[in-house]
Design goal:
The protein has two domains: about 70 residues, no CATH class; about 220 residues, MetI-like fold (Orthogonal Bundle). Helix content is about 70%, strand content about 0%. The protein is built from 13 helices and two strands; from the N terminus they run αααββαααααααααα. It has a two-stranded antiparallel sheet with strand order 1-2. A hairpin with a 2-residue loop joins β1 and β2. α7 crosses α9 and α11 crosses α12.
Amino acid sequence: MLTFTIRRLILSVPTLLFISLVIFLLLHLAPGDPMAQVPLTVPPEVKEKMRVALGLGEPLHVQYWKWLVQFFWVEPKVLIDWLTRDSLVLGWLPDTALYQGELRNISWQTRGPVMDLVVQSLPQTMWVVGMAYVVGVLIALPIGIYSAYRQYSVFDQSGTFITMIGFSIPPFFTGPLVIVIFAVQLGWLPSTYDTMHAVVDWDSFTVQLRQMVLPVMVLAFQTTAQISRYMRSAMLDNLNQDYVRTARAKGLREFVVVMVHVLRNSMIPVITVIALGIPSIFGGAIITENVFGVNGLGYQLLIALFANDIPTVMTLTFIFAILIVAFNLIADVLYGVLDPRIRYD
C-alpha cells in the first residue's frame, strides 16, 4: 500500500502539470481583454504600461512559467510565513503584490494577490458548503442502509420519492423556494448570509447558525439524495451474497451481520462517491452561494469569470483540480483499508 501511494504521488505531478497547461491555454486563448474595463479617459500609453505590468505583453510560455513559479514557489512561502507568523525574510509586507522581491499572482480585477482572496473566501465556504456536505453524508448513510434492509417498505418508497425530487430540482429553484417559505412567509430565518458577521460569543454563534440553515438545507438535500441512493444500491448488492447467509447461519446477531459485514463491503463504492464529492465543497456550490450571498470560492469564481479575470479563474480551477487528484488517491487508499482483499502490488 505504501508503494502504491508513493507511486501515485509521483504520477500525480505530471498529471497536475498537464492539467495546469490545459487550463492556461484554454483561458488565454479565450476571447476577451482585461483592459476593456479601463475608462476611456485613460491615455493609450498608460494602458500599454498597465498591460505590460499585468504580463500581457510577454509570450505565452513566459507567462505560463511565471505562473508556475508564483503558484508552486512564491505562494507556498507566503503560506508558511502566514501560518508561522514569522517572516522568513525581513521586509515582507502581508497583502502586497511582492514577497521577497518576487511578484505574486495578481488578480486583474482586484489588483491584489489571488491567494489572499482565496484565504479570505475559504472560511465562508467551509462554514456553509463544508457543513452542508457533512450533514448530507451523515443523513444519507443511515437512510440508504435502512432503505436497503427494508426494501420496498413504506420508508424505502418514501425515501426513493424524496431522493428523486432531490436529483430533479436544481438549487436555483430550491434556494428561492426555501427563502420564500422560511424567510418571507414564516420569518424564521434570514434570507441572506452576512459574510462580515464575526462569532465572538454564544449569541453571535447562534446568529451564525441561523443564517447557515437555509444554504446548508439546500446543499445537504442534494448530497443526501445522491449518496443515499448509492448506499442503498451497494447494500442491496451485498445483502444477498453467500457470506451474509453464512454469517446468519453461524448465529451472528442481525445487527452484527448488517452493520459490520455488509456495511464494510458496501462502503467501498460509496467511499468513491463521498471522496470525489469533497472537491465540490470548494467549487460546486456556485449557484447556491450566489442565491444566499455567501462570499465563498464558488462566488469568487463566478465573479472572476464575468470579469475575465484569468489569473483568478486559473488559480481557482487548478486548486479544484488538485483536490480532485488528491481525493482520488485518498479513495484508492481507503479501498485497501475497508477491504483486506484489495492490495496494490
